[in-house]
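Researcher: Re-running this chain for the archive, since the previous output was lost when a drive failed. Same request as before.
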Amino acid sequence: MTWQFVLAGLAVGVLVGMTGMGAGSLMTPILVFVFGFNPATAIGTDILHGAIFKSVGGLRHHSLGTTHAKLSGWMFVGSAPASLLGVATATWLKHKYGGGIQSTEGKILGAALLLGALGMLLKSSVRVREVADGPFVLRRRDKIAAILIGLFGGYIVGLTSVGSGVFFGLTLLFVFPLRAHKVVGTDILHAAGLLWVAGFGHLIAGNVDLHAMGWLLIGSIPGVLAGSQFSVKVGDRVLRILLSLVLFASGAKLVEPNGYGWLGWTAGFIVVTALTLWAVRVRDSARLATVARVD
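Model: Regenerated structure tokens:
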């Protein structure tokens, strides 16, 4: 089962290259549902895979000048130790529940996916203020905010592998007045460092399938490079909304693995998504009408 891993890595790589997110949020449920991994191994494998995978993207963005390295560094101060705490929690759950860890950790992962889907839907529909052409200078409160964001997000990433793209990217948009391209670059640069720390923690804990990770990388690295070329041709909002639907369905299935209740949850999310898109369209139409009247 090697070419299947390559295809999975390629698909996720293209999506990440096009949207800037989705590596952990999609790869972990793929490993669980498609390849039959238990959640602990899926999370560890995905995190170490993401460390290598996002390092390529982070270095590329840094060379293009689309990162805020100091902001990434301050978030890393909080996220690095917190991610190790998350890994320790995942390992404790593994020893505590033994054979029941798959159900317990699956539900934790499912909850994280549900939150990630909601965050991605929100990120696809909001408009935020961006900084002017001058550089964004970090103040003391910005550094404190970055550390606190890192602490919370790092723990979630270490525990579930979900959040490095959705949580940090969404938070950066709201908290710091960065231009959109710098949000993506800063997020990827920070995520690369964070995932290396969490990934080594999972490797030591024995939660990584190195064989699967190697084949995933064969697909994901060229995939992210190809996806970055397609990103200018495909609507980013459409892709993120579709991705949020996939995340929500995966999370609902993990939270409620027995029966068909997860289908009702997903149907409800589809309704919420449709209403959100309608509200966004009404808002944009009203804004365009106001600009037309002013002109």
